[in-house]
Amino acid sequence: MTIRCIIDTDPGIDDAVAILLALASPAFDILGITTVAGNIGITTTTRNAGRICALMGRPVPVQAGAAGPLARKGFDTAEIHGADGLGGVAFPASATLPGADAVGFLAETLTREPAGSVWVLTLGPLTNIARLVQDHPEAAARIGQVVAMGGAVRDRGNIGPRSEFNMAADPEAADIVLGAGLPMVLIPLDVTRQVRATPDDCAALHAAGTPQAEFSARLIEAYFQSTTVTGPGAESRPLHDPCVMLYALDPGLFGLEAMGLSVDLGPTRDAGALTPDAARPQVQVATSVQGRAAVARLIAGLA
Length: 303
Ligand code: BDR
Ligand code: CA
Hints:
By secondary structure, the chain is α/β, with parallel strands linked by helices. It has 13 helices and 11 strands. The protein binds beta-D-ribofuranose (BDR) and calcium ion (CA).
């Protein structure tokens, strides 16, 4: 099966690895990349999306989207993803200019392509997708599948005790998207924390000899350097966003549970936290994963 898709993203070290996997895999037909502010500002996430495509020699259309969340201030996480959003890994410049209408691009593409044929793979805050739902509901209803990295369901958060970055960065957008009744698979921290890269995995990527594997190794090594971890897990790092592509490639790696989810819209650091709620539309939530098999699939795809 070919996955015809639009990738909505805030690159971002792990976004970049995810996009490289998709660009390298013949299973993906990438119609465009839409960008959102999240890990870093919109100018930089958009520039980075173009640079990742340039490395791969692929003229995928890039469209800049939301410069900030629907209703609150954005985060600055430069300490994890570096001042350039890509951990200082030197990607080539893009020769093509991005567009500036992510939501219009999403709406036009979904309206033009057969209903149900286009997947939307989200790796960042859900601001663009919420605007699509609000401003172009007929187009949003034509999405074949949303696969979204975000949230923590039973596991702890990574912003507040229960909130995860992509949901916390724009809780109102997450609330709109999770309440829209779209066909949706959510890939939360519960599973992404189990898909972990080790120094041996980086060595395997260096040895693979493809640009996408080499740059993924450099990105993951930059992630090791930008985060200090002690105790269990110190010798590996989670591959959050690549799990979206891995789900699309091989859904059998993941176990899903259907549930409705409400979103904390309060003022605390737990804004964006998810709580199972039977009154909300059901989404499929990944709650288990074969972690080492997923990493092996990632390395094979990049190699
Ligand atoms: C998510 O937050 C971002 O920092 C990563 O790119 C990923 O999308 C993980 O919580
Ligand atoms: Ca991301």
